[in-house]
Each structure stands twice: as structure tokens, then as C-alpha cells.
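Project outcomes to date are best conveyed with an example. Our students and postdoctoral researchers have been running inverse folding experiments weekly, and each run begins with a structure described purely in C-alpha cells. The record below, which covers 200 residues, was selected by the lab manager from last quarter's runs and is presented without edits.
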């Protein structure tokens, strides 16, 4: 028997999965969560074999919740659901150690099958999700993303330089390059643009 926690802010979908997954295989649903915060709490409390979590939720999103769970429970097996894989999402999820990625429109029988696959120690990325996600149109370098991420958190150029152990002039160069690549006028606009395109 495979135990799961289901986290999704769409109550209808969450409850449908909770009701249908046990009918599709040897699956027991231990708990449901309606947002990222409760997903973290439920996962750490119930310690399921597989966490089934929505990517997009209000407040703490799926990736944020996964990052927190990974800190406390590195071995947790995770299946992430999404309606659309924008460029960068799959890469970020895999970097966080997410083992499975499936579309929210998938049939419960398919999701149950993927859960079993993950429980057996294998990975699964739906071909449709993969095809969308491999189109990587991010022109930013890793360092440019680092400085934009820090900008989005409200740090000044001097603060960013100290945090990333770089010269302030170097940080300004990275910011200037990022603004040019995103065709924006300020570093805050560049950070917003990058987040909207899911590059950060």
C-alpha cells in the first residue's frame, strides 16, 4: 500500500483525486492540504510515501513548499502537478529533487500509475509537460539570475554585492546586462519580468 498526501488549492480536483486514487491502485490518502503552508505541515506530520502537490497555489507555491520539505525531509518522494509547464519550471523542480511531473488534466488512473512508478524509485515526466518545458528561452546567466533574485527580495546593489561576495561594480554590470536582455528600464522591472517568465 502506498500512502500519499494531496496538496492542491482547487478543492474539487483535490477531493476528486482523494476519492479516486484509492480506486485506481493500492493507495491510501493520509491527508489533504489546500495551500503550500498546510502541504508542508501535512507532509512532515504524516510522512507519506509520495506527496502529490500542485505547482501553483496562493501564498507559498508548490516549489516553495517543496524547498521547505526538502530541508526537513530530503528523502520525500514528490509528484508535481501543473496545468502548463512554463520554461524553467521543470528545471527548477528537478533541481529541488522532484521525481515526477504530470499534467493536472491527466486521468486519475494515470496519476495512480505515476505514483506507483515513483514509489518504486523511478522518475516520471509526462511527455507533454516535458515538450513544453524543454523550450528554454532564458537568456540570463546564473549570476544575472542571482542578482535579480536578490533584487526581488528588496536588497540594494551594495547589499547584493556583500551577499554574493562580488564587487558592487560587478553587480551593477550584471544588473545592466539583465535589464538589456529583458528590455526593461530598471532592475526591479527586470526582476519582475524574469519572475513572470519563470526564469528565477
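After processing, the design step wrote out the following sequence:
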Amino acid at each position: 500500500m502506498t500512502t500519499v498526501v494531496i496538496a492542491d488549492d482547487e478543492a474539487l480536483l483535490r477531493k476528486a483525486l482523494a476519492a479516486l486514487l484509492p480506486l485506481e491502485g493500492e493507495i491510501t490518502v493520509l491527508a489533504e492540504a489546500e495551500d503550500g503552508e498546510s502541504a508542508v505541515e501535512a507532509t512532515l506530520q504524516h510522512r507519506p510515501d509520495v506527496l502529490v502537490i500542485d505547482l501553483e497555489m496562493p501564498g507559498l507555491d508548490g516549489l516553495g513548499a517543496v524547498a521547505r520539505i526538502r530541508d526537513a525531509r530530503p528523502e520525500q518522494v514528490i509528484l508535481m502537478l501543473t496545468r502548463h509547464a512554463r520554461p524553467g519550471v521543470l528545471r527548477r523542480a528537478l533541481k529541488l529533487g522532484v521525481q515526477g511531473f504530470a499534467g493536472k488534466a491527466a486521468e486519475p488512473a494515470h496519476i495512480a500509475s505515476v505514483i506507483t512508478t515513483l514509489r518504486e524509485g523511478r522518475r516520471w515526466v509526462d511527455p507533454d509537460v516535458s515538450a513544453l518545458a524543454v523550450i528554454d528561452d532564458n537568456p540570463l546567466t546564473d549570476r544575472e539570475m542571482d542578482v535579480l533574485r536578490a533584487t526581488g527580495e528588496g536588497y540594494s546593489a551594495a547589499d547584493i554585492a556583500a551577499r554574493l561576495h562580488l564587487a558592487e561594480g560587478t553587480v551593477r554590470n550584471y544588473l545592466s546586462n539583465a535589464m538589456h536582455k529583458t528590455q526593461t528600464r530598471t532592475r526591479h522591472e527586470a526582476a519582475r519580468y524574469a519572475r513572470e517568465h519563470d526564469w528565477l
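The chain has a mean pLDDT of 91. The chain has two domains: 2-133, 142-196. The training component of this project remains on track.
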